[in-house]
Input
Amino acid sequence: MPGSKFGTMYASSELYPATCKPEDVFRRLQAIRETLYTQDGDDKILRKGTLDFISFSYYRSNIISTETTNFNVLGGDLNPYLQKSD
Output
């Protein structure tokens, strides 16, 4: 299609430490790192392609602590500092 643009969207949920305890702050860093993975050779593939745009979506925020048991790519526990919406 002439004039078309190619891009990607990152659907992201912010992840905050549940408390200011260093253990929770460190757990947040670990959790974020777990979601950023690459494999050998990815850098070569990425250099070959280009995007016309990158967009970001921000749907929700979650918290994580050393006691969080339900962390996955969708986030952790609900953020108690924000009002929940439908």
